[in-house]
Design brief:
The strands form 3 sheets. Strands 4-3-2-1-5-10-11-12-13 form a 9-stranded mixed sheet, with helices on both faces. It has a two-stranded antiparallel sheet with strand order 6-7. Helix content is 26%, strand content 20%. β2 and β3 form a beta hairpin. With 235 residues, the chain is an alpha/beta fold. It has 8 helices and 13 strands. α2 packs across α8. The N and C termini lie close together (12 Å).
């Protein structure tokens, strides 16, 4: 949750669109602590405060304006991710005859080409982190480069947060690299759970920032007193 919250650090006044329980807790924590200008939505038509109280109206047309104008940072999930940040949430297997049908492409292409995107993966495994996704929904760095300058203009895949680590694409070729390790996790464990070679700094990988006592209190007593976070990641 702390790593998810930190994904919005420094964004300023943008719309946070977290998808999933843990990203939502992270966005609310960021708003209550180091990102007071962050805008939160109920997912439908309202701007809300961290406690869910209404702060303003956000009609769908205005929401799309924020998306295409880059004033939104979404944290999506992923059924598959590859080394360049291509995301699949549509199907597993050949697109013409898939083994499994998933959510569909949804808004992933628009999100990744128009505003900053991060990903939350609650179970880091080789089934998710694959050499090549079966279908491209969210556009990765190599796909954006191949599509031309118009696709690259606003394309930014910020980071990937999992139950094991934090990763980003700040390498010369924009391939995924290991940024930090959650407590008790080793580089070897992350590598074993990843279906491609990760970039790793020669001087080692630092630990992920742990929550402060004040942040823990907000999570446990204010944001998620019912402990819904345990449904996604059990500690």
């Amino acid at each position: 949750m702390i790593a998810c919250a930190d994904a919005w650090r420094g964004d300023g006044e943008v719309l946070a669109s977290p998808m999933g329980v843990v990203p939502s807790i992270g966005a609310r924590l960021a708003r209550l602590t180091f990102a007071p200008d962050l805008l939160l939505t109920d997912g439908e038509a309202l701007i809300v405060g961290p406690d869910g109280t209404t702060e303003g109206w956000l009609p769908y047309r205005q929401h799309l304006t924020m998306v295409t104008g880059g004033r939104r940072h979404v944290m999506m999930g992923a059924s598959q991710l590859d080394r360049f940040g291509n995301q699949n949430i549509s199907c597993i297997g050949d697109w013409h005859r898939p083994d499994r049908q998933l959510l569909g492409v949804r808004g992933a292409p628009v999100n990744t080409l128009n505003n900053p995107v991060s990903y939350w993966v609650p179970k880091h495994s080789p089934r998710v982190f694959v050499e090549r996704v079966d279908m491209i929904c969210g556009v990765g760095y190599d796909s954006a480069a191949a599509a031309g300058s118009s696709a690259r203009r606003h394309h930014r895949v910020r980071r990937v947060v999992t139950d094991l680590a934090v990763l980003d694409f700040a390498t010369p070729d924009h391939s995924m690299r290991l940024v930090s390790l959650h407590p008790g996790v080793t580089v070897e464990r992350v590598r074993e759970a990843t279906g491609f070679a990760l970039a790793v700094a020669d001087d080692g990988v630092p630990p992920t920032r742990e929550p402060t006592p004040a942040e823990l209190r907000l999570i446990r007593e204010v944001i998620d007193p019912a402990g819904t976070r345990d449904r996604e990641v059990r500690v």
